Amino acid sequence: MIPFKRHWFQKTLFILLALVMSACSTAQSQIPSRLVVATPSGPATFNPPLSQSAYTVFGYLYDPLIQDDPVTGELMPKSGLAESWQISDDKQKIIITLKDGLKWSDGKPLTVDD
User: Fold this and answer.
1) Are strands 75-77 and 82-87 parallel, antiparallel or unpaired?
2) Dihedral sign of CA atoms 76, 79, 84, 90 in order
3) Phi, psi of 20 (to 5 degrees)
4) Which of 41, 104, 96 is nearest to 66 (CA)?
5) Which residues face 66 on adjacent strands?
6) Of 70, 44, 66, 63, nearest to 55 (Cα)?
């Protein structure tokens, strides 16, 4: 009876080891390039207002239109996207002028309608 249990244990261990080793193999991605970042946990949400985690993916996904000036601390247009910005007289709107020639990652033009 003991040899049967040992044989069953060895088979189970072999199957588990094979599964673990197959998960470690490198697979070719269909995506031409990708960014892999190790964090202590996965993102809890992809909705920035709902995120309360210190470990977010938003810095890799979103490029802001406005940023803080590191010297003065005042807001200024983000150099890659916004050309200028102004606050309306009633202080209810921020009007941002986008740079010409902006494109999405798929090459389609980025417009104010987006």
Assistant:
1) unpaired
2) negative
3) -65, -45
4) 96
5) 77
6) 44
Tell me the Cα Rg of the chain: 25
> What per-residue string of b and e applies to 47-69 under the rule 16 or more CB within 10 Å gives b?
eeeeeeeeebbeeeeeeeeeeee
State pLDDT tens for residues 59-81: 777 777 777 788 888 877 776 77
Residues 65/46, Cβ–Cβ less than 8 Å: no
Global model pTM greater than 0.90: no
Residue 53 to residues 27, 62, 89, 93: CA-CA distances in angstroms? 30, 16, 36, 29
Rounded Cα–Cα distance for residues 74 and 22 (Å): 52
